[in-house]
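Fresh eyes needed here. Kindly weigh in on this sequence plus structure tokens:
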Amino acid sequence: MLFLWTAPGRIQFPDDEIVFQTTASLVDRGSLAIAGIAHRTGEPPGRPPGTFGWAEGRDGRRYGFFGHGLSLAATPMYALARATERRVPFAWTRAVRSDHFTFHVREARADWHHLVVSLTNCFVTAATVWLLVRWVAWLGFSGRAALWTGVAYATGTAAWPYSRTFLSEPLSAMVLLAAAVAIAQAHALRGSRPRAADCRLWLAGAAAGFAVHVHVLNVVAWPCLAAYALWPLAAGPKGQDRKTRSFGTCLKALAPMRRGSIGAALLAGLGLGLLLLGQWLRFGDPLETGRFGHYSAWTWPWTGLWAQMLAPGRSLWLYAPAATLGLVGLRAALRSAPAATWLALSLLVTRWLVVSARTDWYGGWGLGPRHLVPAIPFVMIGFAAAVEELPTRAVAVRRLFWIGVAASAALTGWLATRSIFEWMIALTNDPRSAGHVLETSHFAWWASPIAGFASLQPDVLALGAVRLARAGHPGLLVGFAIVALVGLAAAGLVARALGRARAPAAD
């Protein structure tokens, strides 16, 4: 509910508009073909105006080159918008700020469709929070640690600002985490309920297969997920020395997981096969995504490597401060949940390395380290371990930790009320960054959104609802009030659960 209250109610990026058009085409015509954006938006130098985000297929029609997973996930929201378009007051569509750059022709029906579909990631991110709590709990952490990890992820990382967008990163995080949850459940069930463990592994394979349809980059997570699934094979029976373990013993340890592992591999392969088939049908080449090398290329990774860790405009640790707090619990996480912790570290590192080797490592005009956002919920395992062992720390350490949690929420809440696209336009018009806007946004402290957002007005649909109520149209504000009541009730339940699971006092 918190995410809905900070949503802007509009499509902010040209990438989002292409994905929106694909969603609309799927629902309205059962097709992936789109019209594209009429005017110049994000085309690289030398590309004709109006060609951003799509490529011409073998049949002469235009197809978006972004993954279609988010378009599929958003079809219920688009169907809801289409079903309610005649019942919604015209005034509701005017709650969105009108002084922003738009990629569609402004009219009530189109505005309503964009408004509703733009809320998709609010629900996707909420689902990711729930999955994170479930994952941490299945790993054996206490309910208190699991709940606090979910709260910190939701309010203290880039997950909150990204819930405002219609970009694919929130859905990538959800799908990859769903695979991890299923694998953790399979590990827990393989001894007592092997059939249920097999079903969980199949779910993990299906999630991994769908992940590549959300963004093709998610394929780099496959080896990490596979290693996580097969961890019991490497660990062997409890109490057994790895040095004395035979190959036959390893195969015996794998036997209860064999059917589930094979099924998972087949389902993941089916997902990848469908992606390659779709690309062949549209572009005549199974390995062609539709970008045709116009938008990025391989490069030396040094700039991307350090920038995504340390640069003021792109650092993972600045834009996911709750995960940064979790670094103090990393050693504890390795002791208590080694398989899951190594999954988190390997998934982050492989994604970081591959992204850094591309010329578009920064993710366009996205906030912070856009391409690393799907790894953030996994990195939160350190936070869970830190909360778990916090009662054993000194009082001053505990106080500093919770002050850090509150500060993380304040920072990301600030970032979740402004538009990074609006700030990048402001940078484009700033003489201090003339000719090198992207480099300035990466490396200059004054150009980071943390500082720059102070010059912007809030970009929140709920404030538009307040303005409409003052003008005599209270309906939308009533809707937000209902959302707030539901959110407060949910927050009360979480607070009650945290109170019941209160940590024991330190000796």
Residues 104 and 233 are 53 Å apart (CA to CA).
